[in-house]
Specification:
alpha+beta; four-stranded mixed β-sheet; binds flavin-adenine dinucleotide; 13 helices; six-stranded mixed β-sheet
Amino acid sequence: MAGDLLEYDIAVIGGGAAGVAAALEAGAAGAKVALLEQADDIGGTAAISGGGCCMAGTPLQESKGIHDTPDIAFEDWVKCGQGAADEQWARYYLDHSLHDLYFWMESYGVKWQELQQNEGNSVPRWHRPANNGLGLMTALINGMKSQGATQVFTTTVVDKLLVRDGRVCGVRAMRAGAITEIRSKAVIVASGGFNSNLEMVLQVRPELKPYKIMAGSGPGATGSGHRLLRELGAYFTHMGEMAFYVYATPDYRDPQASRGLVFRGISGYIWVNQQGSRFHDESRSGAPAATPALLQQSPPHAWAIVDSQMTGAMQIADPYYRDGDNILRDRIKELLERSPFIRCAQTLEELARKIEVDVPAFLGEVEQYNQAVESGLAREPRFGKPLKGCKKFDTPPYRAIQLFPLARKNFGGVKTDIRCRVFNQHFELIPGLYAAGEVAGMAGGHINGKAGLEGTMIGPSFFSGRVAGGWAAHEADFGPGFIGKAREV
Ligand SMILES: Cc1cc2nc3c(=O)[nH]c(=O)nc-3n(C[C@H](O)[C@H](O)[C@H](O)COP(=O)(O)OP(=O)(O)OC[C@H]3O[C@@H](n4cnc5c(N)ncnc54)[C@H](O)[C@@H]3O)c2cc1C
């Protein structure tokens, strides 16, 4: 069915972190922007995320007496990426994280509330904003509305990039059953990752095909933007690199049980494999260390063992289980009682039988762990897990929560230059085409490498969105391009 033909300076595909940041930046330069979002609302995965950003040398860090600089952060970053990080992009991001992310977000009303030190970071630098990712996105979306330069089209699926005389000159989208063509001087693809599309995940990680893997990104992270880029011959890199989370269990409300729920806040739990043995220091639960440990098990799944006291502080990283900062305990109870992937028993022996592991091996593990706690050791002897704040398994009912690897964040994507212009397979730039955010491995193609420090997903997505918006506007004859402000050293 024929539809509209519209004209804008810039078309942005995707209304998540990178897309909204790009629209704001292009709008600030004076460009007229169309922001196209397939969902009924903008916000993307970013709005359901933790919103934690990795930033270095901030006032929040200073207020807590933490000395951090882009140099220190860069060293941690490169080590964590195991030689595969794009060092130019990582350096660019970290040097700008204070002014062009921390203060920039504050200028829209964001409050940075709390710091965490995640695995691989030599100091606490994961900054949590008030109201998590929703807080960040609400602030920016309000800012975009008051700026007035961007027209938002929701329920609008872009299905083709338009090309004329070798230049990308707009997009074709489906809206209310009709085709809309949006002509523009440049297009920014900010369509997110593909970790909610298991077929695509397994295509790039074929060795995982025999096993149960769960999808764990936002509903829009299906890789549709990757397809649009691929049709124009774009170059993709590091596609098999992604963060699989370990502490996730299938969502029993999903009929296919292919979506996973990440849970946190259970201190002192242990994980056992299908043989009933522990295999890892559970306090190192981040993807860099825990994922390889889980993937080495046969089969690559595990059970998190908890007693009734341990579940008291449990949190589920899914909007159904929280209302803003408020945890909905009734819903967590509902999950514990109804999920077929969670077994419950009054004794540890009965639990071992219910999860079909080797009973003596399992009971031996728990006994050894309990003894370590009881004798007041600082660390348990098997894997060196710190025992501070841990308790014995002694309060029935006991539960076993089944864990499968959960695909969460893409570390690879389309390759771009430092202005977010997309390369083709001959390493030539595709005129008029930009990419930012997770579709571009968060920034540039692979800013993290093989693993990330945490907060290195959404932070670089906002930043690369801004860079893309600034330079796309410049190409459309608005503004000087993205300059920003690097931290003085
Ligand atoms: C539960 C969870 C928690 C997380 N917590 C953190 C965290 O604390 N810190 C961190 O650094 N990272 C975190 N992440 C990762 C982070 O949220 C993402 O990497 C980030 O949101 C990526 O931003 P983006 O703009 O590229 O994509 P998104 O935010 O996903 O936005 C992309 C948008 O594009 C739309 N879209 C896709 N294709 C089309 C199309 N063809 N037409 C129109 N629209 C389209 C999608 O619907 C979506 O709205 C988390 C992820 C999850 C799932």
